[in-house]
Structures are given as C-alpha cells and as structure tokens.
Amino acid sequence: MFLTVIIPLIVLPCSLLAISCNFEVDFCEWEEKETDNLQWIRDNGSDLWKYSPMYDHTLNGKGYYLFIHNSSALLPNQAARLTTTLQTATSANQCLSFWYHMYGPKIGTLSLKVQQQGQPEELLWTKTGTQGNQWRWAFHTIAPQNKHFQLMFEGSPGAGIGDIALDDVSVVGGECEVQGLCSFEANICQYTSPGMLRWNRLVGNMSNRPVTDHTTETAEGHFMLADTSAGNLQSGEPLLLVSPVQEPVVAGACLQFWFQMNGDHPGNNFQPRPCLPL
User: Which residues pair with 116 in a beta bridge?
Assistant: First the structure.
C-alpha cells in the first residue's frame, strides 16, 4: 500500500529589500500590469523613439530600463502599472530610491503609490510634465506598514507626445537622508535675499531671461534671477542669495550650481562665498 502525502504550496509575502532591481536581466520582483494596451516595456534603447532615453542609467550604455511609450492615439486617463509582489508588513522606515526619465511635450504623470491589503491606495510621490532629456534621481521613505502591502509605479503619459522611463530601483533600511538639492521648482528652499533689491523666483517668459530653466528645460520651469541692470542696481552694490544655516562639515563639501548671465553689462564677481552665522 502506498501512502500519499500532500504538501500544500503556500506563497508567502516577500521582504521589501528584495525589490531592488536594475532591470538588466528581468523585472525582478516587479509585475507589469497592462492597462488599455499601455504597458511598461523592458528595453535597452534598441527600439529608440524620439523622446525615450538614449541609454540606461545603470551602465550608461546599452543596459536595460523600463519605459512607457506615449503616442497621440492614447487617451489622457490611460495608465500603466508596475507593482511589487506582496510584501511583508514592516516595523521600521525603509528608503526607496529610483531613477526616472520624463521627456516630451505635455508628457503626463509618474506616481509612486502604496496599498495595504484591504485598504485604498495611498499616493507617496508624483511628478508631472517634462523633466528634460536626462535621468533624474528620486527617493521616498516608506513608513512602517502594519499589513501586507504592495508598492506600485503608475505611469500616465497623458495626451502629449513623449516617454516615461524607470531604472535602478533600490531599497535600503532606514529613513531617506535629506539631500542638499534645490531646483526652485516647488519653492525657494528657505533661501533668503536680504535688502531692498532681491533675487526673485521666476519663469522664462520675459526678455533678458533664460528661455528655459535648467531642471525641466521648458519655459514653465523656475529659477532665481537677479536684475543687475544699471537702472535697477548701483555699481558695486551686491544682490545676495543666502542659504539656510548649514551643518558643520569635516571633510569639505562640493557646491554645484548652474548659472546664466545675460544682457550687455550683466555685472561681474558672480561667485558663492561662505558666511558665518551671527
């Protein structure tokens, strides 16, 4: 007589750390959800469209990334989803970072969401509109989740023409560290401009200004501008843009910025200088 033993197969939730992926081999722990014939495509630039990345972020060459191709045939409310497998409940903060590429006129929205079992979706991060023809870094702290949950990237290209791409998703333990980067897109990042004449946060829609900003490479992007024309500023008078008080540094730090000086006599001595707190 033979004894039959039945072993049940149980699919257990995965650890959040397992979803780190550079998409060089496959989708890793991410699952592509096709919606209305719109989907995330894994490619290495071989099927290059006008607005898709010319190279991936990982290898800066013929490596693979995920992208959504937009066309005028799509409807504004169409979206493609990339979701994790079911994740185990967590008890501590974890930092999710990723690189994204959003380029093209009137490109739509890329969003990061989380959904616990039996609960509605929660929006964690979102970006809308063209961000220039380059890879950009984003991060968000995933708070502790008291139930099994899924993370999801949702790409909605919109009615314009362009592509949304994603690469190098990474998860590490702990809260995401605040980065010392200010694009002036949302606000002036606690910078101040003391005095009667000040730096102003503007967009490029008037003369003697950059046509586009550096961040989004569009006329809708923001930058800080100092009007140094002779009728506005006396010779030798400075216009200061002062950062918030910074933490002490031991090994030094690198300050990087983009600038443009326009007009017949825009002035000189444009340079950053350290200030001591009062």
Answer: 149
Cβ atoms of residues 167 and 22 within 8 Å: yes
Cα 237 to Cα 27, 207, 226, 261: the distances in Å are 57, 23, 12, 17
Whole-angstrom distance, CA of residue 199 vs CA of residue 76: 38
Q: What pLDDT digit, counting tens, does each position of 8-66 carry?
A: 443 344 556 678 999 999 999 899 876 666 789 888 877 666 677 878 888 877 899 99
The pTM of the full predicted model, rounded to 2 decimals, is 0.67
Cα distances (Å, whole numbers) of residue 13 to 29, 141, 225, 239, 245: 11, 20, 51, 57, 44
> Which alpha helices (DSSP H) does the chain contain, by range?
none
Classify domain 16-173 by CATH architecture: Sandwich (2.60)
Q: What pLDDT does residue 185 have?
A: 74
Q: Which residue, among 105, 104, 148, 100, has the nearest Cα to 125 in the 3D structure?
A: 100
Q: How far apart are CA 213 and CA 233, in angstroms?
A: 24
Q: Is the pLDDT of residue 101 over 70?
A: yes
Q: Can you give the residue ranges of every domain in the chain?
A: 16-173, 180-278
